[in-house]
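Notes from the 1:1 (GR / supervisor)

We went over the backlog. Supervisor wanted to see one worked example end to end before approving the batch request, so GR pasted a single chain during the call. The sequence is below; no edits were made to it. Supervisor asked that the structure be written out right there so they could see what the output format looks like.
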Amino acid sequence: MTPLFEINDLHSKIEGKEVLKGVSLRMNAGEVHALMGRNGSGKTTLSHTLMGHPKYEVTKGNIKLSDQDITHLSPEDRACARLFLAFQYPIAVPGVTVANFLRSSLRAVRKDEISPQNFRKKVKEELKNLNIPESFMTRFLNDGFSGGEKKRLETLQMRLLEPKVAILDETDSGLDIDALKTVSESIENLRSKDRSILLITHYQRMLNYIKPDFVHVLMDGKIVMSGGPELALKLEDQGYDWIDGALNKKETH
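Structure output shown during the call:
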């Protein structure tokens, strides 16, 4: 089976410093993968590199989506190829309403797949699913939004864009218990046999609602361990120190 999303020996640097040091990961359609790691392990660098942020230079390896090499595509072209990134800290854009932002996003990514009438109908449906008032649409993008409102908006955008691969960079950060449950359940509902999801997170708590098929641990720019959902539970219970010990023990043998 050809993976839907494939990262091969990816090396990346920012401002001359190498951060990713050979990340490899293969995701089949229908799978949910969780990527965990300490602060500074390279998780956000990986998400930005995958989406094509110009500050992050790929020095080795490649990224494939639907068997297309997207390593050197612009962020816009990656979005049109149906790669989606939910940011850890979404930025505010005063002067641009949520409605105009969503309409422009759909027009750019999905072209003529959805009519204006169906757009309005779909938005109303998803606002209800996410427990977002319709007045939300007239507000300026993320301007004065709470953490939970920002993450709900990104989830709304993801549901409308219907990406093939969704990368969620610490979507759980800044969420209270109720918002975490709502956003997580909405993401869980996006599971599809045609879509892959990569959840980047520090903690197990989001995985209480979204059960991953695979869990990977990133340390010093490399994936050093992979397993099933039980790996996330062990990390929650014991932290990352035991992985350091396991790796050191492996190196001495």
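Supervisor's comment: Helices lie at 43-51, 75-80, 98-109, 116-129, 147-161, 177-188, 229-238, 241-252.
Batch request approved.
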